[in-house]
Amino acid sequence: MLDKRPDTIHQRIRAHDRYQVEFKLEYELLPKHRTRYKISTYIFTPKSLGVNQHTYAKAQFYRDLQNYVRLKTPVFTLAELRNLPTSPLLHIGQILEDANWLHDPARHDQLSNSFKFLCAILKVGLRRHLRFLKYTCRHKASSGDKASGLCVGVQELLDNTYTIAQHYRAYRPQIQQAGRGEILRAYELADEAISLVIEEAFNKTFSLVDKCMPGTVGADLKAQLSTQAEVEVNHRRDSGYNSLLEPEGDNEIFLFRTSVLKKFTSSVLYLKLAVKREGTAIEQILLALAAGLSMIFATVVAFYAQQRFGMFTLPVFVALVVGYMFKDRIKELARLFFLRHTQNFLFDRRTMIRTIDNVHTLGFLREKMGFVPDEEVPTPIMALRNQGLLTEIEQDGQTENILCYTKEVVLQGAAFRHVYKGGPPVTGISDIMRFDMRPYLRKMDDPIERWPYLQAGELRVARCVKTYHINVVTVYTVDKTQEFVKVERTLITLTRDGIRRMKHVRDPDETAT
Fold first, then answer.
1. Which of 200, 208, 225, 429 is most exposed, with minimal Cβ within 10 Å?
2. How crowded is residue 195: how many other Cβ atoms within 10 Å of its Cβ?
3. What is the DSSP string of 63-96?
4. Taking the mean position of all CA atoms in its chain, how far away is CA 334?
């Protein structure tokens, strides 16, 4: 049965753009000295696409895979961000109350980090609040409950964001005491980023209210959202910030500016990664052992021939040549044997995870990939992949190439407690992987086919879209257990032009053995 532990791994799979699939995994720290997760991703690909062990090497796979590992953004509700003592909004005030903060470089670093944390946490809080509003819109049974829930939720959004923004902007006079230095620059960049995040949340909420709440109540809420969005635009204009959208322009500067601000405020979550091949020493030892075994064979053949036929005879010459021939093959066969049997415990590469200042080592990642035959795929994974009538028909009499990508994550719980002391609690890491699907598109047919049909005595042609399906099944385990904590399947529909759509397929039984 599926393990019923708390949900300590969170995954989101989406299309990042037309060609890249983004996997976002969040690993929570367990209440232990060391937290260990293992994630195995099986990619089922039609054989007609020609992606197999002969055409798709490990080096190419890792070139198509881009990894970003960051600290997990601490989670606060909008109300908690205003009131909790651990909130970076209040932490800024606590630092500024220290009369010595102007002359303390450590305080300057804490202030800069708090500015960035506030923006990152606010962005996640607004996203979660908007998700709650969408849930209210979709699942409330009656229109009255839906309207009431949306009114309360939108009003909370407006009140909380206004209070947070005004509280943060009230710090400006004190920050300006530091002069036109790094602290004021960090404060202003975070202020600009916060304004953009709030305006974006208002725009999305406006669209949601417009769809879900027609009538005078909805019109009143939209008016309030529109007014507050304009307040944020005017604030950026009055402050001399460059992130102003021009409806008639190309907005190159606006887009570049928003991207830079996002990177700046997210930098507080960045981690330093050091990637290296795993098991190089063991591999060299095994290769030397293979060479030794082959040399033993060649030496035994040479000694036996000399003892049997003498030193300088034709049989000895033939024996030496044959011994050398077999020595070379024995060496290669032993090398393949050793490497094949070390794949179970050796990974392709190991990535050390450290803080950006290189002071704390938080853990490491281990990765490996390879193609596996059908019979080596665990039964619950294959069962979930084959779920659905259309899938069964599609696979009738056919097989697929199955790529397995395995990642093992080990986190040192004690090290996380020393990161950003005095700041918001850090409870895990986020692992973002972007996988380029273009190698899967090369052998696809044209994306559009013309199909003739008869109608009313006339021959006509219909436009048909040619698609291919790739199934991704992900398995999670915790702490070296053999039980699956979670099994998920995602269906990716592709054409030669790229990703057409993605769909998460749920297992109705929610069980695995």
1. 200
2. 24
3. HHEEEEEEEPPPP--HHHHHH-TT-HHHHHHHHH
4. 38
